Amino acid sequence: MQSPIPNGTSLQNRYRLRQILGQGGFGRTYLAEDRGRFDELCAIKEFIPGQTNPAFGQKARELFQREAAILYQIDHPQIPKFRAHFEQEGRLFLVQDYVAGKTYRNLLHERKAKGETFSEAEIRHLMEKLLPVLDAIHHRGIIHRDVSPENIISSDASVPAITSNGVGTSRPDMLGDPVLIDFGVGKELAAQTARDNAITAASLGKIGYAPAEQIQSGRAYPSSDLYALAVTTIVLLTGVEPQQLFDDTLLTWQWEKFLIQDLSPELTNILNRMLQLRPGDRYQTAKEVIAALATIPSPLRNAQPPGGDGETGSVGSVGSNLPPLPVTPSPRLPVTPSPR
């Protein structure tokens, strides 16, 4: 792999590199200032094919041009806007909007340091916000190929999570809309050239997150992204990595025994279907998952009283003087009946 470009370097006499944001097997991402837009920050993704033979390099350029054209057509507030692409000194670059915030990987690290993980309400928030994004790209024939906690940013992650008396679950609305980054251009290239080159499994998909069809053959479908999203959610729920959640002997997911808080059977069933090993046994579209999530009863706002046990998925305002909602009392959270 080529060496990183030093900070302060100017690309195209326009983009001044400030620092490396991340690096993977097929490239690295830089934070840069765009002098053509009053030094506005942007993200520059360097695409590194990984092989040096001319035929492979030409294939890489063709795929790079194709992916740039596809990204240019995507206009979604939860996908960084494509700005430009260029080649300089044999290196290929994509320029996109910079998204301020924290990745879900970073957020999980922070939670685990406090002995916490993500709540069901937060996972539903993530899925309900991200599934329409996947649906939009899938309708354009685009497969992300690399959905994982590292590639999802909470666009408002600077807002601290709120808990009930320090032990309750966080309000999902305190997390910003998830932004999907780092489309798997390199993994698509690996899949396109797998028949003619010695390609490692890690080149075709992120181990533990990518499904078997992607790792073994490079094929990927909309349900492949749904599988990766489900793996992402169970990692966020348990704080445990996929390799520990999957039993290689039984070829089954054993994630439920690692949960540290209750999870509704409805969401459990949805995730287990998304995690099926055979693509045909999963949900086939993001819309199907959205419809399934809509059937899960939503937790009641303000149902957790001050000083409660913190079991509700979302926490409402404390000290509200509003009368109780006329709902059927929960066995755990008795509600005073409304006057008749």
How do you describe this structure in short?
By secondary structure, this protein is of the alpha+beta class.
Topology:
Elements: E1 10-11, E2 15-24, E3 27-34, E4 40-47, H1 54-73, E5 82-88, E6 91-97, E7 102-103, H2 104-113, H3 120-139, E8 152-154, E9 178-180, H4 185-193, H5 201-204, H6 212-217, H7 222-238, H8 242-245, E10 246-247, E11 252-253, H9 265-274, H10 286-294
Antiparallel strand pairs: 1-2, 2-3, 3-4, 4-6, 5-6, 7-8, 8-9, 10-11
Question: How would you describe this structure to a colleague?
Answer:
The protein has 340 residues and is an alpha+beta fold. It has 2 domains: 11-97, Phosphorylase Kinase, domain 1 (2-Layer Sandwich); 102-294, Transferase(Phosphotransferase), domain 1 (Orthogonal Bundle). The protein is 32% helix and 16% strand. The protein has helices at residues 54-73, 104-113, 120-139, 185-193, 201-204, 212-217, 222-238, 242-245, 265-274, 286-294, and strands at 10-11, 15-24, 27-34, 40-47, 82-88, 91-97, 102-103, 152-154, 178-180, 246-247, 252-253. A 6-stranded antiparallel β-sheet has the order 1-2-3-4-6-5, with helices on one face. The chain has a 3-stranded antiparallel β-sheet with strand order 7-8-9. A two-stranded antiparallel sheet has the order 10-11. A hairpin with a 5-residue loop joins strand 3 (27-34) and strand 4. The longest helix has 20 residues, at 54-73. The protein is globular. The chain starts with 9 loop residues before the first strand and ends in a 46-residue tail after the last helix.
